[in-house]
Amino acid sequence: MNAKELRGKAANELSDELLKLRREQFSLRMQRATGQAVKPHDFGRVRKDIARLKTVLAEKASAAKTSGK
User: Fold this and answer.
1) CB 28 within 8 A of CB 43
2) How many beta carbons lie within 10 A of that of residue 56, not counting itself?
3) What's the pLDDT score for residue 68?
4) Whole-number percent of the chain with pLDDT over 70
5) By CB neighbour count within 10 A (0-12 exposed, 13-18 middle, 19+ buried), where does 57 fall?
6) What is the pLDDT of residue 69?
7) Could you tell me which of 63, 51, 68 has the C-alpha nearest to residue 11?
8) Is 2 within 8 Å of 53 (Cβ atoms)?
9) Assigned domain for 24 exists
10) Are 8 and 47 in contact (CB under 8 A)?
11) Number of domains forming the structure of the chain
């Protein structure tokens, strides 16, 4: 997922995607805690996707705030 794709989505779609990524992050942590095989790069990928999504959400909120004035 890249920022260009995310910018084309609506805010509610982005919120749903954020929730999905948070659940995936939790699932990865639980898998690691129970000793299941987890690919280490998945932690970084999910964390970066969450950060990217939150950045786009903040940009949209800022744009809505400035256009509303």
Assistant:
1) yes
2) 21
3) 74
4) 99
5) middle
6) 63
7) 63
8) no
9) yes
10) no
11) 1
**Per-residue CA distances from 50 to 44, 45, 59, 60 (Å):** 10, 9, 14, 15
Interhelix angle 40-67/11-33, rounded to 10 degrees, is 160
Taking residue 30's Cβ as centre, other Cβ atoms within 10 Å add up to 11
Secondary structure of residue 58 in the 3-state scheme: helix
Q: How many residues does the chain have?
A: 69
Q: What is the CATH number of the domain that holds 46?
A: 1.10.287.310
Copy the structure tokens of residue 19.
Answer: 């929730």
What residue numbers bound the domain in which 33 lies? Answer: 3-62
> Averaging pLDDT over each range in 37-41, 54-58, 61-65, which range is the top one?
54-58
